[in-house]
From TrEMBL, chain A:
TM regions (residue ranges): 18-41, 82-108, 120-142, 154-172, 193-215, 253-276
Species of provenance: Devosia yakushimensis
Entry-linked InterPro entries: MetI-like (IPR000515), MetI-like_sf (IPR035906)
Coiled coil (residue ranges): none
Boundaries of every ABC transmembrane type-1 domain copy: 83-272
Protein name: Sugar ABC transporter permease
Entries under CDD domains matching the protein: TM_PBP2
Recorded family membership: Belongs to the binding-protein-dependent transport system permease family.
Alphabetized SUPFAM superfamilies for the sequence: MetI-like
Automatic annotation (TrEMBL), chain B:
Compartments where found: Cell membrane
Keyword ATP-binding on entry: no
Record key words, sorted: Cell membrane, Membrane, Transmembrane, Transmembrane helix, Transport
Pfam families membership: BPD_transp_1 (PF00528)
Transmembrane segments: 28-54, 91-112, 124-144, 171-192, 225-245, 282-301
Membrane topology reported for the UniProt record: Multi-pass membrane protein
Listed name of the protein: Sugar ABC transporter permease
Keyword Transport in record: yes
Domain ABC transmembrane type-1 per the UniProt entry, residue ranges: 87-296
Amino acid sequence: MTARVRTPRKPPHQTRTLVLDTISHAGLTLVALLFLFPFFWMVSNAVRGNNEVLAVPPRFLPTEYQWGNFAEAWLRLPFGKFFLNSFIVAGSVTVITIIVSSLAAYAFARLKFPGRESILVAYLGTLMIPQVMLVIPLFLIVSRLGLINTYQGMILPMAFSSFGAFLLRQFFLSIPKELEEAALIDGASRLRILISIIIPLSLPAIGLLSLFTFIGQWNNFLWPLIVVNGMDHATLPLGLTMFQTQQGTSWNYIMAGATLSMIPGIVLAIILQQLIYKGITVGSGFGGR
Amino acid sequence: MADIVSTQAKTAPRPRRRNKISAYETRTAFLFLLPSLLGFLAFMLIPIIASFGLSFTNWQLLAPPQFVGLSNYIRLLTTDPAFFNVLGNTLFFTVEYLVLNIVISLTLAVWISSLKRGQRWFRVIFFIPTFTPTIAVSIVWLLIFTPGGVMDYLFQTLALTVPNLLLDSKLAMQAVIIVTLWAGVGYNMVLFNAALDLVPQSYLEAAKIDGASAWDRFWKIRLPLISPTVFFGTVMTAITSLQVFDQIYVITRGGPGSSTATLGFAIYTNGFQNYQMGFASSLAWVMFVMIMALTGFQFWLQRKWVHYDS
């Protein structure tokens, strides 16, 4: 109050803030355009002839738009197969993760059994273990099981998620127990309760976990690199690097493939940034926890 | 996260005799837990133990493993000239990347939250690269950096005598850092932006009336209030950047020379190109110790700058 008396302030000058606002918007737009340049460069090179890719000086737009490159890349290089493999692997990992994590999360959240707390602590303890660290023993286990170069070998080691079990447990704990008690008295089994009461109420958490798992696997590179050899089981990221080393690199087709490989991620990013943003602003105060 | 477990333990006191755990419920619980526990054992617990055990062997995949005690670790620290180079590269990458990531993502977050319109669109634009495959992203940047590519053209046009980034052993790591920043700042930006929007407007208004400049309002009000989120972002970013692999595999393959070979890359090449599984496992444990040490250091440091008094 005293400060107000000492320094009387004029109301903010309308035109001045408008000018500042415009400058700020323009500046950030410029930064955003610079940021988008790699995407532009990718698409711009995906639709030109290969001899134009490394033209000096660089042409920012193709002289002739070859939109057929997308179809051509799809047919000429086995991008169709890479897509299918990526979908099989990312999709299966996601489905298995959701099933396994919900079952485990329900046991942790609602059922009493000896050792519950210690098992949960063991799960939490592994959250800090990096994937690179486990790659060698995982490779040895998978090769002992005879799963090198198979879908199972790509899927199974990735489908266990202590993070998923923990995340869903936290969500299940927030669902009132009363909702289940009536069903229990009516003689419903625990599995029945999980499927018809808990899971429908947990769709936001399950949705978030599915999207993160799917995109994580869609983008995963290290594990397929180790388990897969040859083209038959290669996923998109692996397939893209295979063309990098072939002689007479067809940059335009690779850029077309890269463009296609980014579509699921771009769609999910648009959906998820709002979810993450809301999750933080609504959920947990100042800590991003 | 450990505190969640302990509060759980406190609110659910150990069941007494009369409220004993029923055998039926225990059986149900273990059936529910079985798939997850099998996965945990086969793909987490056993690999962790195996990795530790392997790091004391000289296993090269073809011959049976022999126990060699600490000699892998001794070799790292004494005779292997590559190790300190790899360790240095990893630390250099992590420190420079971490600092730039936090500064850039915080700047973008503050800038975006100051806008009255269009916040959502800017968030989306900066966020998109975090969800695109690192490999695809790296290949696009490889084309940008390639000798005679756009980056070289840009340097020429600006009359800068910068050598091609990928051919210069002093600059190659900068190329990797640029790509990783481009791909990674968006996530922290969304986190920080969300936290900034939670700072009560009334605090900022009050400070403004008291004559605090925008600079002061940031350092004295907004940053302390969002410091737990910044801390969280810093810890997670440090953990992931110590593991950097994909970008390096595509853009530099550890080169030129071994100027961009990091721990993640060295684990891959030693294990899967030279088949030195034992030696690569000891590198993996070095990485684990570094992650623990850096995380511990950040938790120690947080007492000096993170405020939890909301």
